[in-house]
Amino acid sequence: MNKRYVPPYVIFEVANVHAGDINYLRRMIDAFSRVEYENKGIKFQIFSPDGIALPDFEWYPVYKELCFDRSVWKNMINEAAKCGDAWVDIFDCYGAIVLQENIDHIAGIKLQASVLENHEIRTALEQVEFGCRRLIINVSGLALDEVHAAYDYFSGIAENVILQIGYQSYPTKISSTGLQKIPVLHAAFPGVPLCMADHADANESFALEVPVYAVALGCSYIEKHFCLDRKMAKYDGFSSLEPDQMRSLCASLRNASLASHGLFISEDEKEYLRKSIQIPIARHAMSPGDLISKSDIIFRRTKQNGLNFREIQDIQNRKYLLAMSPAASASFHRKDFRPANIAVIAACRMKSSRLQQKALLPIVGVPSVDRCLSQCLAIPAVHRVVLATSDLEADAVLRDHTFNGAVDFWQGEPDDVISRYLGACDHFNIDVVVRVTADCPLILPEIITYLLEQHFIYGADYTAARNAAVGTTGEIINVCALKKVRDYFGTAEYSEYMTWYFQNNPDHFKINLVQLPPNLVRNYRMTLDYQEDLSMFNCLYEKLNNEKRFHSADEVFAVLDRNPEISKINGHLTLKYKTDKNLIETLNRETRMKAI
């Protein structure tokens, strides 16, 4: 936020240091005028001895000594107003009369906490036309509810009320300074200016420090006693700063204000960061179609311009990938990226040893492959769905299950599934594959959507769920990663088990195994491989709304959670690639790539 620079307002408190000497008072006004500061005022304490005390009060004789005639105060106020703002401290009705007589030359009024309940003063001030003049009320010694009461009253007669903390005690202990009140008052009176009036020993450095602390905490007004020479002061010299000290204080307050105003990020700050920031640099050469992960970059200072890591992530989160081939030690730019073409590729064959022609077996009257493709078409982030089968005549019948062209059709290698996938990817210019198998009639769009998001956030080559129900999910694979497998193995003999080629090679691929959120996780078996599976799906679909084009995870899991007898139909079955030890050993051996 860009705040207009205004240094704190400083009130030079004359108090009683003049000791009744008019000439000394004039010299103080002159000294005040010689302190160069753009936001200041000088304050006089105006009272009559009989208006402020009874003759039995110990200070009554001093009050008589300090009292000036109204004509003297008129001259002093006029002189002060020529070199800054003139303020008056009101203690009695006499002071209120002087205020009324000189109102045109007075910028502000101060009331001590000891006179806030004085109804004579209240009555007199109610007759004053405050206009834009400021009214400081000192609230030291008042509880918060009493401060509210005082503020409510005085803000009814003056528009610009300032709350002041700090009481006159010589010396005031550092522990009694009261800075802790500032945030409390800010919270209780939002938008109301605060003033600090400390009375620390002027011979100690704390006297020059505490006003700066107060400004840092949020005070916009500072009141400070001053004198010409502390050693010569008869009264009120203890906490009074001499002119050179006042100059030093004003300089410190000006610096404190300058240091706390301006734009949230300054131009100098921007320039420093621009020159010194470490930006992401390619750790190694990368290829078109790659995603950038933390493992792909190093951070260095460089004369190159480039994106920061957050900007790279923002671009990839929009499902962009590299269009260019950044070299090692190169920075990244927006032009290096393009939108990814994402496609679901559903592998399907008519051959099946355990459940003959299962792709065409009806589930409540609809072929299982159609059930699968309907679910895939409902995934919002993909650009196309491809039904990929072999180029054998027996599989050509699947062309009739493309929903009148809503699903693309591809025929390729019968047994090398990776080769078949890459043929489809080349033909349809696909960058990122959602790999599913058509023997999973209930692929859940929410799970695929979540995996896609995590794939691009991570900058992965391969993403899969750790904890999805069997048959509800797929795998996200970059096409450039598929090509890397093909280039290494030539013919991928076991590519029906494509998962192993990636998860067995974490030193070659950026593997992202994702923990799904709880609402997407169940332990049901939802793949079609045995007659029991078909029976389970028929029972499940009979309870789903079959007029809908696809079914959400919430719908499917709600039915299965409410009807546990359905999942028991096939719950005893296992997956061969998870239980066949010979197969697992073979896959682990034959799909492993040499360590880099």
Q: What is the topological layout?
A:
Elements: E1 9-13, H1 22-34, E2 40-46, H2 49-52, H3 60-66, H4 70-81, E3 85-90, H5 93-101, E4 108-111, H6 119-125, E5 134-138, H7 144-154, E6 160-165, H8 181-188, E7 194-197, H9 206-217, E8 221-225, H10 243-259, H11 267-276, E9 279-282, E10 297-300, H12 309-317, E11 320-322, E12 337-339, E13 342-347, E14 362-363, E15 366-367, H13 368-377, E16 384-390, E17 408-412, H14 417-428, E18 432-437, H15 445-458, E19 462-465, E20 475-478, H16 479-489, H17 498-503, E21 511-514, H18 531-543, H19 553-562, H20 564-568, H21 576-579, H22 581-590
Parallel strand pairs: 1-2, 1-8, 2-3, 3-4, 4-5, 5-6, 6-7, 7-8, 13-16, 13-18, 16-17, 19-21
Antiparallel strand pairs: 9-10, 11-12, 14-15, 18-20, 19-20
Helix pairs in contact: 1-4, 9-10, 14-16
Task: Considering the chains and any ligands shown, give keywords for the structure.
8-stranded parallel β-barrel; 16% strand; PseI-like; Nucleotide-diphossugar_trans; PseI/NeuA/B-like_N; N-acetylneuraminate synthase family protein
Would you mind describing this structure in some detail?
This is N-acetylneuraminate synthase family protein. Residues 133-259 form the PseI/NeuA/B-like domain. InterPro entries: Aldolase_TIM (IPR013785), Cytidylyl_trans (IPR003329), Nucleotide-diphossugar_trans (IPR029044), PseI-like (IPR051690), PseI/NeuA/B-like_N (IPR013132). The protein has 596 residues and is an alpha/beta fold. The chain starts with 8 loop residues before the first strand and ends in a 6-residue tail after the last helix. Helices cover 36% and strands 16% of the residues. Strand 4, helix 6 (119-125) and strand 5 form a beta-alpha-beta unit. The strands form five sheets. The protein has an eight-stranded parallel β-barrel with strand order 1-2-3-4-5-6-7-8, surrounded by five helices. The protein has 22 helices and 21 strands. Helix 1 (22-34) packs parallel to helix 4 (70-81).
